[in-house]
Amino acid sequence: MLVHPKRRSRTSVQVPLTSLIDIVFLLLIYFLLTTNFMVEEGIKIKLPQAQAAAQQVEEVITVYVDRQGRAFLGTREVSMAALFDGLKEIIGSKEDKMVVVRADRAVILNKAVKVMDVVKAAGAGRLCLATEKEF
């Protein structure tokens, strides 16, 4: 008499992927929400480097000085007189308004200082020279 053992059907082990997918989507949402998507537009300049550079978080008026010493208010090039008039109009009666001067690191210092003098004469309460954090 031949006895054949019963063959059992093999059951495959399945890893529950639902919770893993949930965690991956939560991480994706977290990184999307915490990433800063603000792209700062302006004139292409290389900022000077400093050890103690810190980010500014309040809304400011930005004046750019490129490597040739030309001043830009926003994205348009302005003369010193037009810069004075434009800043005077933007600042108005707000004495505590901060103006950031973003001067190229290759600009002649005298030209950047002239722009800073015009900004201060226009009534800026606080004046800041932008730098890049040195690594």
Please explain how this structure is put together.
With 135 residues, the chain is an alpha/beta fold. The chain has a domain of 85 residues: Nucleotidyltransferase, domain 5 (2-Layer Sandwich), CATH 3.30.420. Helix content is 31%, strand content 19%. Strand 3 and strand 4 form a beta hairpin.
Low-pLDDT segments, ≥5 res = none
Number of helices: 3
Rounded radius of gyration (Å)? 29 Å
Strand order in space, largest sheet: 4-3-2-5-6
- Beta-strand segment tally: 7
CATH-assigned fold name of the domain at 49-133: Nucleotidyltransferase, domain 5
Kindly list the characteristics that best describe this protein.
31% helix, five-stranded mixed sheet, Nucleotidyltransferase, domain 5, alpha/beta, two-stranded parallel sheet, 7 strands
